[in-house]
Amino acid sequence: MGELPFFRARTALHPDHLWIWERSVYVDENQRTWLPIIIEMESSLQVLMRQEDVLLGEAVCPGLLAPGLLPSMWQLYPGRRYRGSDSSFWRIVYHIEFSGTEEMLLEQLPDPEYE
């Protein structure tokens, strides 16, 4: 039998901030663009952030965007999590780089007030 190729993913540095630029496009502090894929599950909300180069147009004021499930900005917090501009917390499930593409899976943490 032939050997299967071995692929290696590496962990990547988390962006300090992610800001909404336009509908479904976020930008980090290094002007890299991130595309969100929302995953709604019975008991939680997850978002897969995929870093891809996107040609950016004019930035849209967050107040002009239709309300959505995701915050308009995330800020990195201690303990492998982000805090959203809506005060929500998101756990970093994983953040890897593979073949030059980064993916980061975030899971919204329950609001402690409602537990």
TrEMBL record:
Cell compartment(s), UniProt: Cytoplasm; Microsome; Nucleus
SUPFAM superfamilies registered for this protein in UniProt: Oncogene products (SSF50904)
InterPro entries cross-referenced by the UniProt entry: TCL1_MTCP1 (IPR004832), TCL1_MTCP1_sf (IPR036672)
Keywords annotated in UniProt: Cytoplasm, Endoplasmic reticulum, Microsome, Nucleus
GO cellular component: cytoplasm; nucleus
Main location, first listed in the record: cytoplasm
Keyword Transmembrane helix: no
Keyword Membrane: no
Molecular-function GO terms, alphabetical: protein serine/threonine kinase activator activity
Any Pfam family matching the protein: TCL1_MTCP1
Family: Belongs to the TCL1 family.
Summary of subunit composition and partner proteins: Homodimer. Interacts with AKT1, AKT2 and AKT3 (via PH domain). Interacts with PNPT1; the interaction has no effect on PNPT1 exonuclease activity.
Protein name: T-cell leukemia/lymphoma protein 1A
Organism: Lynx pardinus
